[in-house]
## 1
Amino acid sequence: MTSPYERPRIVVVGSSNTDFVVRVPNIPSPGETVLGTTFATVAGGKGANQAVAAARLGAAVAFVARVGSDAWGDAALEAYSGEGINTEYVVRDLEVPSGIALIAVDDRGENAIAVADGANGRLSRADVDAAAPGIREADVIVLQLETPLDTVRYAAELGADGGAWVILNPAPASGPLDRALLRHVSVLTPNLGEAAILSGQSVGDAGEALSAARHLRAQGAVNVVVTMGANGVLVEGEDASGEIPAPSVQAVDTTAAGDAFTGALAVALGEGRPLLEAARFAVQAAAASVTRPGAQPSLPTREELLDGT
């Protein structure tokens, strides 16, 4: 099936990792050893996941990233090309390895993740400048926080100056974000925990999420969309607000649910959909992703969403 909307141009500036995933009966506590069942090596990284999510949903995607000159970098570039992603702005780093993530996934589909950033930690303003031609032509710029904050801030500024939607998925969050960054953000997409860290408020339900979202808008973000897992999302925007429920599904692995959401949101906004409609589309993509294991392997195609599978 083809989309009735124009194919959007999306530039993702962010991280590329290889995920080493162990299935466990429960997430280990500090000092605890848990015997797992299966092990898999899969492509991941929030930036890469969001790029793949957007490409599978029909966007023309370019990826700005760094990978090592190693086997993991070779495999990542081959996989991105196979997804139809433009990799001309992906830099091969000669000095540090590709990023990796160690992921434990329990029987409920919840996960715990430890990341060694590797080449991701060296993504620079110069790398973003090299991608400026693509950024200037983009409908949407997508960012996360697995690369240096200065680089994220610079990419947001370039994207905003070019008139693109600038989506920031603030993960991992370690503290409040400065106004110099937030004033360039069209849509901020934290989960409940990230909303709490960014706002300095307790955020455990939709009411508290709304308070945090309003605080973050007051700090400069134009729109805030708080993802609440199985409870859907809360939208607090310049022109629209409301809650969108998530469909009831059997969760297998939630590893890339936020990335599926952010990638799908970018596609829908790039197609010209209103924010609430775009968020509904993104909720469907996220719900589909949790029904399958792995990060990038779980990300749905446009056809799967249209077919309701």
## 2
Amino acid sequence: MKPSQQEIQALASALFAAENTRAQIEQFSKRFPAMTMDDAYAVQAAWMLQKIAAGHKPVGHKIGLTSRAMQIAAQITEPDSGMLLEHMMMRSGEHFSMARFIVPMVEVELGFVLKRDIDGAQTSLGDVLDATQYITPALEIIDARIERLDRATKAPRKVVDTISDNAANAAVIVGDVRKPTNGLDLPWVGAAMSKNGAVEETGLASGVLGHPAMGIVWLARRLAKYGQQLRAGDFVLSGSFTRPVPMAVGDAFSVAYSHGFGEIVVKCEA
């Protein structure tokens, strides 16, 4: 069974309510076992339109499931994507309240800010790098408005659930350093994430499809199929190169990047 257009709108409204009340909802894939990725993106788009109608502004995109290990775990062969809105964007060291999240986790990424549009199914790595104004360190805060594990069976959610849930995005924390693409060996940019003084995760940006800009190549090509494109000024999260680490009130995170990208700090407050 697939969701109808009316049901897609209802699922989007359920996500809107779940985020506002911080009360998780059951997996859509359980109710609609024939749900496709296109259906899931339709739910995501409908939810984001509801948020835009409530006064929020689109500022870019996030790309997820970029590592081979995560794709195998999700039983897919390509990444997924979500929309970034202005209220999701934060700065390193800014007051970070856990009150707006349900079960947040943090991932290490790089953010790309575009200086011109990227359009077309033939987009290349060079096109993305040429269109990038600068790259900045960034952390993605992921969350789950849809249960990660079914409340009864403990079955993990499917990729259509994650895509519907805006590819799990909840917030972005941006660092202070901005670097142009020229002269950077991006696949070898590394980071070490410490939680409460202990190193939890390390990784290289090459874990993102071999090169962090390749996620943006994928996104530009996917959007082109639907007559859409990346726009000048967009902030694009290129994909995580560490596993997600749980966050709780009182936790303190610091993420140190190589290649002069500096550090991002987060204190999880009530």
